[in-house]
Write a structure and sequence with these properties.
The complex is a heterodimer of chains A (620) and B (612). With 620 residues, chain A is an alpha/beta fold. Chain A folds into three domains: 326 residues, ABC transporter type 1, transmembrane domain (ABC transporter transmembrane region fold), CATH 1.20.1560.10; 185 residues, P-loop containing nucleotide triphosphate hydrolases (Rossmann fold, 3-Layer(aba) Sandwich); 81 residues, Rossmann fold, CATH 3.40.50. Chain A is 63% helix and 10% strand. Chain A has 24 helices and ten strands. Chain A has a six-stranded mixed beta sheet with strand order 6-7-8-3-9-10, with helices on both faces. In chain A, a hairpin with a 2-residue loop joins β9 and β10. Chain A is elongated and about 120 Å long. By secondary structure, chain B is of the alpha/beta class. Among the domains of chain B are: 243 residues, ABC transporter type 1, transmembrane domain (ABC transporter transmembrane region fold), CATH 1.20.1560.10; 75 residues, no CATH class. Helices cover 64% and strands 10% of the residues of chain B. Chain B has 21 helices and ten strands. In chain B, α6 crosses α12 and α9 packs across α11. Chain B is elongated and about 115 Å long. The relative contact order of chain B is 0.08. Classes of the chains: A alpha/beta (620), B alpha/beta (612). At the A-B interface, α2, α3, α5, α8 and α9 of A face α2, α3, α4, α6 and α9 of B. The structure holds adenosine-5'-triphosphate (ATP) (2 copies) and magnesium ion (MG) (2 copies). One adenosine-5'-triphosphate sits at the interface of chains B and A. The site of one magnesium ion (MG) has 4 residues of chain A, from α13.
Chain lengths: 620, 612
């Protein structure tokens, strides 16, 4: 991006601070920028009064310049003091808007495939404006830095005016090296950021191991298998990989510092010497000399010696990453058919997979392969299949989180893509294998099952009753208003089983508020038999007009379904009621036999018998 | 906004000596890694110290020489002023934040040390309670901040020295100006007051800030993104995120305004004092006691004084801020020390088990809860036996096996291994003789081969051993489907392949099959997410393995399961209810007993009964 466009990009970010605040910030920044020149002039004024004056009555003569000097100082302090909260507020607004925009962008798209791509995740990490190390800066830092820089030019102009009071050539003599110095500093910082970025993939690995060390799951395995030192060594190795490019560059940076020293020292020394010598010869007054000596160095400051330049270039990284994320998540096709589809919430729906194929982006294997399936109104449909058969994938396609690579998914004959993601999803409710645990209140945790309708307390109570959440609620200190995380004041941690109940209530709340298709992906894998049966009895009793799709490896619950389909090699291999499928004697029958057989005989005599049934299924 | 959240827990004050010891440790880390740089840093600070004084003195000389018409001296003095200024500018950055000195010691020195400490805590409470985990998170992210805080405190000493030098310089103009030393205390004090208001506000808003981070993270991670999209809750979550941000920032902005008011008040007093001082200097000039150069120097010094004072204040303030990171670090080290103090065990595990493992009236309550997760458990698990544990959810099954792996110390009773108290066994040596697949097994972001091989670190890259373990866990199907076989990188976060739930579970089971001769083999719901054929296959293999191991080393296998089909063959079945052992015995006995086991078994058997 050309320099000007980048500056404009930063100023655009400033808009989020809103005009009154921007105006106030500009005013104090201008004031700040003029202070060096004003101090110089006030000093010169004071000196001019004194140097010519006779000793008697000197103090009286100096009163006015002294007061003026004091006023300039106070103004400087006032401007500096006010700047802090103003800048804080401006940055808070800018960064707040930026983060919220990014969150909206990331959470907003209809599918997750693009969000999931490693490149987008990496960009989000850069764009998140939540600095974790010294190279990162937020858009707020950058926008305010840009403002400083621009207004610093005003101060620089004022300083130039003071310099020109001695001789015009002082201006280019200091201005050119000062600008060059600013430019070189910028470039150096750019190189640092580049080096930092080149190490990020290593950093991602390091962070993953670090997370592992502090998580319960991986943490247990690390301690049990004695991997403590090994893991720390991995982290060290990856972090070294992350930072080595930067360090290598840093080792060379002293040359840049030397250059910087010369760029400042040589012109400044020349100018100072000339002015001092000249004044001694009587070319100018001591007052003018004083002013020149006091302003000369401030020019170098105006061209970004310190933080401003760094803030600007690093913040631009963040903004660029944001723009790239937006580009990567953007969809070109408008939802043309949106208007044509009628709102059908509340009515039971026929969902159909038409010759659907699907391959995960970045992989080669076709997980779903020419699959046809119909989900009928009010049906309890069970989906079974081996591990990795694609059951969870099927659910993701059904809920429009991925688009089929070929074929289509329709609801009452309309492609769900045409229906529009939002409209379609109002009609479904899904419990994923990895559900979300919000650090919010129980009420919010349940109500977020259907985020696009206003909170409905009756539905909340009803969903809690349906899910059997009462037991859990009774034990919470503030009932519905208890936050579900101990990191919150008055919050509690729930056990896995209790969470599963909350999530079930979440899904049933969505059903209460209009969803007509409920999808459950192994909702009871970790529940005991009794609880599992209770959950299913409740579900069967309360589902009313709702179709249910259930994924489970527990065939004892599956058999209660109206219809069972077996997913194999990416398509539906068998379909029918439990009795039909058992009678047909296919793969389902074999699977059921494996689980059921143990209840018909003791363990010891089973081992021989099911060797052949296993043969039939694993390689079917 | 540069912000790393502080702890939500009430902060404890630690004694000075702890800080001194930490500072010594940090200095050692830096010195050991880059002694040259440390020397350079101190030298640079001294140069800057002299540079500030030098600039002012050179300016005075310049003006005085000019007035005396001594062009040569004036020019020379002016050149010196320029040089002193340039040196200061170049070194100022380094002196303010010595990045190389922070980076390397923090990342290669302190961080590994902190993480090793974290890993060395043998028990698990610090990872399982979200409030404690919060501190752990702070500690993990803090090394850079702590190292920066250390150098800030060094910088603060120099900044105060600089303040002293500056004021002394003024003293050379007129001794009266020395009185400014006392006046300078006013802005210093006010600034600290102001910074304290800001720090307090940051602590008070830490909770909403963290909530904001949590909601932001949910919005941007794909795993949560699935549910958020389907539930249509994106708008609401983003709204809550924005609201939490606003709440945080409002609180902090208010504090920032208060801080600014304090600051300005302080400076107002100082400026009045300074103007009065200047009047004295002017008066002195009039009486011939001073020169115009003195005046110019006083003014120049006054201009830098604000920066100097500001530098001193911000550095002392950042030392105060670093306590937010240092205190959790101290806490964690104390926690580790307490953990170590409990480690009385020195014995290694026996090569083979002859008697078995015995629970003597074992009870355990999780910190922060008032229910007993285990309550008066007494039972003997004979050497060489296969033991199944069943019970409703939350009945204490997982707690029981975690006690066996020494992840918790029972708060009453004891567990013995061949008569030796588990507490007397050295934990790492005992764990070296255990293999396990837990309910919430690990998913490591590395290759498939390493995911399995980590189960026996010395054989991490031993292809044959890994392949055998993979077969043992019926995971060859998973392996066959991987594009790069053993070398396939797993985990979406690091750009690897994602597995299905059951495929991950098989990987964990394969890992548990790596160690050749465990004395204790734990499977906590090993087949919760597995399909029927795999469950069957794995169960049979593990049963065979358990028997074989049992015969060879007297190993005890403990299998926790909700699937009754998989437990009937066990030698001993333990039935837990609300932390108590309610029934124990082989399948037939328990069925005959007609109690809880028979009841639960009946539910499942009915569900599989031939007619529906
Ligand atoms: N996000 C993803 N990216 C790439 N491949 C994936 C992803 N998720 C799943 N897969 C692959 O797709 C295949 C099907 O996975 P899916 O999760 O649909 O299986 P499943 O039938 O639900 O299995 P399980 O019973 O173990 O839950 C697996 O081989 C898996 O490796
Ligand atoms: N880390 C923890 N902190 C506090 N309480 C806990 C913790 N882990 C478990 N509990 C509580 O201790 C009790 C026993 O839990 P445990 O996990 O041992 O049960 P479980 O029988 O394994 O259950 P599940 O079948 O659901 O796995 C439960 O009430 C649970 O809520
Ligand atoms: Mg699945
Ligand atoms: Mg458990």
């Amino acid at each position: 991006m050309p320099v000007r466009a980048r500056r404009i990009r930063l100023l655009r970010a400033l808009r989020a601070a809103r005009p009154p605040l921007i105006a106030a910030l500009c005013a104090v920044t201008v004031l700040n920028a003029l202070i060096p020149a004003a101090t110089a002039i006030a000093t010169a004024f004071l000196v001019s009064r004194i140097s010519g004056h006779a000793p008697s009555g000197l103090l009286a003569a100096a009163t006015v310049p002294l007061l003026l000097f004091a006023v300039v100082m106070v103004a400087g302090h006032a401007a500096e003091a006010v700047t802090v909260p103003l800048e804080f507020m401006a940055k808070a607004r800018i960064d707040g808007a930026h983060r919220t925009d990014l969150a909206r962008l990331a959470a907003g798209g209809p599918t997750v495939d693009r969000l999931e791509s490693p490149r987008v995740q990496q960009l989000i990490r850069i764009a998140r404006a939540d600095p974790r190390n010294w190279t990162e800066r937020t858009p707020g830092d950058g926008a305010v830095g840009q403002l400083h820089w621009l207004i610093g030019l005003v101060g620089a102009a004022a300083s130039c005016g003071v310099l020109a009071g001695y001789a015009w050539w002082l201006v280019p003599a200091l201005l050119v090296p000062a600008a060059l110095n600013g430019f070189l500093g910028n470039r150096m910082h750019g190189r640092f950021v580049e080096a930092w970025r080149s190490g990020i993939p290593q950093g991602v690995h390091g962070a993953a191991w670090e997370d592992a060390l502090a998580s319960t799951g991986e943490g247990k395995d690390i301690r049990l298998f004695g991997l403590e030192e090994w893991t720390v060594a991995q982290i060290r190795r990856h972090l070294r990989g992350l930072l080595e490019p930067v360090w290598r560059l840093g080792a060379k940076a002293w040359r840049a510092d030397l250059r910087r020293f010369l760029l400042i020292a040589v012109p400044l020394a020349g100018v100072y010497a000339a002015v001092a010598g000249g004044t001694a010869h009587g070319d100018a007054t001591v007052a003018v000399e004083t002013a020149v000596l006091a302003t000369g160095w401030s020019l170098f400051q105006a061209f970004g010696l310190g933080e401003d330049a760094r803030n600007m270039s690093a913040a631009l990284e963040t903004l660029d990453a944001y723009d790239e994320v937006r580009e990567a998540l953007r969809r070109d096709e408008p939802d043309e058919a949106r208007a044509s589809a009628e709102p059908t919430t509340g009515r039971a729906t026929v969902v159909r997979f038409d010759d659907v194929c699907f391959t995960y982006p970045g992989t080669k294997r076709r997980v779903i392969d020419h699959l046809d399936l119909e989900i009928r109104p009010n049906e309890l449909l069970a989906v079974v299949g081996l591990n990795g058969a694609g059951k969870s994938t099927l659910i993701k396609l059904l809920s429009g989180l991925y688009e089929p690579t070929a074929g289509r998914v329709t609801a009452d004959g309309v492609d769900i893509r045409q229906l529009g993601a939002e409209r379609w999803r109002q009609r479904i409710s899904v419990v994923f294998q990895d559900f979300v645990r919000y650090h919010l209140t129980v009420a919010q945790n349940v109500a977020l099952g259907c985020g696009d309708v206003p909170l409905d307390y009756d539905a909340l109570e009803a969903a809690a009753r349906d899910a059997g959440l009462g037991d859990v609620l009774d034990r919470l200190p503030d009932g519905w208003d208890t936050p579900l995380s101990r990191t919150r004041t008055g919050g509690v941690d729930l056990s896995g089983g209790q969470w599963q109940q909350v999530v079930l209530a979440r899904a049933l709340y969505a059903v209460r508020t209009g969803a007509r298709l409920l999808v459950l992906d192994e909702p009871t894998a970790h529940l005991d038999v009794r609880t599992e049966f209770e959950v299913f009895d409740r579900l069967a009793a309360r589902r009313g007009e709702t179709s249910v799709v259930l994924i489970s490896h527990r065939l004892s619950t599956v058999r209660q379904a109206d219809r069972i389909v077996l997913l194999e090699n990416g398509r539906i291999a068998e379909s029918g009621t439990h009795d039909e499928l058992v009678a047909a004697g296919g793969a389902y029958a074999a699977m059921f036999a494996i689980q059921a057989e143990r209840f018909q005989r003791g363990y010891d005599d089973v081992s021989g018998a099911d060797a052949d049934s296993e043969e039939a299924t694993t390689h079917g | 906004m540069a912000d790393i959240t502080g702890p939500s827990i009430p902060t404890t004050r630690y004694p000075m000596w702890r800080w001194a010891a930490l500072w010594r440790e940090l200095f050692g880390l830096a010195w050991q890694r880059m002694p040259g740089m440390v020397v350079f840093y101190f030298a640079a600070n001294i140069v800057v110290l002299g540079g500030v004084a030098g600039t002012a003195l050179a300016l005075r000389w310049t003006i005085d020489a000019t007035i005396h018409g001594d062009a040569g001296s004036a020019a020379l003095a002016a050149v010196l002023a320029a040089l002193a200024y340039a040196v200061n500018v170049v070194l100022a950055d380094l002196v303010a934040t010595p990045i190389p000195l922070i980076d390397q010691p923090a990342i290669l020195g302190l961080l590994p040390r902190v993480l090793s400490d974290l890993a060395a805590i043998e028990t698990l409470d610090h990872l399982e309670r979200s409030d404690v985990l919060d501190r752990v998170t702070i500690v993990r992210r803090s090394p850079w901040m702590i190292m920066a805080g250390f150098w800030s405190s060094v910088g603060a000493v120099f900044a105060l020295a600089q303040l002293g030098v500056t004021l002394l310089l003024l003293g050379t103009v007129s001794p009266w100006l020395l009185l400014l030393l006392a006046v300078a205390a006013v802005p210093l004090w006010c600034d600290r007051r102001g910074s304290r208001a800001v720090t307090e506000a940051e602590l008070a808003t830490a909770e909403t800030f963290r909530l904001q981070q949590h909601l932001f993270e949910l919005s941007t991670t794909p795993a949560a993104g699935k549910e958020i999209r389907v539930a249509g809750s994106a708008a609401e979550i983003v709204r809550l995120q924005a609201q939490a941000w606003q709440q945080t920032m409002n609180g902090r902005a208010r504090a920032s305004a208060v801080g600014a008011a304090w600051k300005f008040g302080g400076w107002l007093v100082f400026t009045a004092g300074f103007a009065a001082g200047l009047a004295v200097v002017v008066d002195g000039t009039a009486n011939g006691a001073g020169t115009v150069g003195d005046l110019v120097m006083a003014v120049t010094v006054a201009a830098t004084l604000r920066n100097t004072l500001h530098g001193a204040v911000t550095r002392t303030a950042s030392v105060a801020q670093v306590s937010r990171f240092v205190e959790p670090l101290f806490w964690m080290r104390d926690h580790l020390a307490a953990d170590r103090a409990h480690r009385t065990g020195t014995l290694v595990a026996p090569p083979v088990l002859t008697e078995g493992i015995t629970f003597h009236d074992v009870g355990h309550t999780y910190a922060g809860t008032d229910r007993r997760a285990l309550d008066g458990i007494s039972v003997h698990l004979p050497a060489g036996s296969v033991v199944a544990v069943v019970g409703e959810y939350g009945s204490g099954k997982t707690t029981l096996v975690k006690v066996l792996a020494k992840f918790y110390r029972p708060d009453s009773g004891r567990v013995t291994v061949d008569g030796v108290d588990l507490a007397d066994l050295e934990t790492r040596a005992w764990r070296a003789r255990i293999s396990a697949a837990f309910q919430d097994f690990g998913r490591f972001a590395t290759t498939f081969g390493q995911n399995v091989g980590l189960g026996d670190l010395p054989h991490l890259d031993d292809r044959e051993r890994v392949a055998a373990a993979v077969r043992e866990a019926d995971a060859d199907r998973v392996l066959r489907r991987l594009p790069d076989g053993h070398d396939t990188l797993l985990g979406r976060d690091v750009g690897g392949l994602e597995l299905s739930e059951g495929q991950w579970q098989k990987t964990a089971l394969a890992r548990a099959s790596m160690r050749p001769e465990p004395l204790l083999f734990i499977l906590d719901e090993p087949t919760a997410s597995l399909d029927a054929p795999s469950e069957q296959e794995i169960f049979q293999r593990h049963m065979a393995r358990a028997r074989e191991l049992g015969a060879r080393t007297g190993a005890v296998s403990v299998i926790v399961s909700h699937r009754f089909s998989t437990v009937t063959g066990a030698d001993l079945i333990l039935v837990l209810d609300k932390g108590r052992l309610v029934e124990a015995g082989p399948h037939d006995e328990l069925i005959a007993l007609g109690g809880r086991y028979a009841d639960l078994y009946g539910i499942q058997a009915d569900a599989y009964a031939a007619t529906s």
